[in-house]
């Protein structure tokens, strides 16, 4: 989940950076077509230059501390270019030279825009890849046991006024994938069911000795609050013989 938030935050930062660059290009285009004067154009561009530099530097640092080395290295040329401009005092637009350097200023920002869009697409790609990899792995036999459990212990109508937290969880269970199994936790490596959080699921049924519930051999946590399970005669005898 932490990686998902990393990509979301970096996506928002990149969108902001793209917005800064597009804004500067609009100011230059307005100047080219005489919609604004050189002073207004230069002052508007200079107003967002330092925030753009700072935000891009922060993005590189953010990738570094979150362990995304490739993305951090990808941002280094852009960061170095900004640093060079700042160290040579060439980062701000000169109002007296803006007309003469109009094409050059536009090309610099178009290069930055292409660079940011490339990084943005990589971020989106990494976000989706991360989501696909993080999907829980499930074993077919565990899906079969869960569906058998669903049929064995159907939902009954709860009094939602007395049980406000009740929810018919197993109603969503299908064989379409792990995400449909509400209240079930799968082991990410082996694909076995390790937790059944069915508190408030409003289940009912007869608990027999060969119940599907006993087929979850790797179960570490079980919550069956508000569940009505009636032990069968055979399961009662089995319990008595074991005690």
UniProtKB/TrEMBL annotation:
The chain crosses the membrane at residues 7-26, 53-81, 113-133. It is found in: Membrane. InterPro entries: Cornichon (IPR003377), LRR_dom_sf (IPR032675). Keywords: Membrane, Transmembrane, Transmembrane helix. The keyword Transferase does not apply. GO terms for biological process: vesicle-mediated transport. GO terms for cellular component: membrane. Belongs to the cornichon family. PANTHER family: CORNICHON-RELATED. This is Uncharacterized protein. It comes from Brassica oleracea (Wild cabbage). The lineage of its organism: Eukaryota, Viridiplantae, Streptophyta, Embryophyta, Tracheophyta.
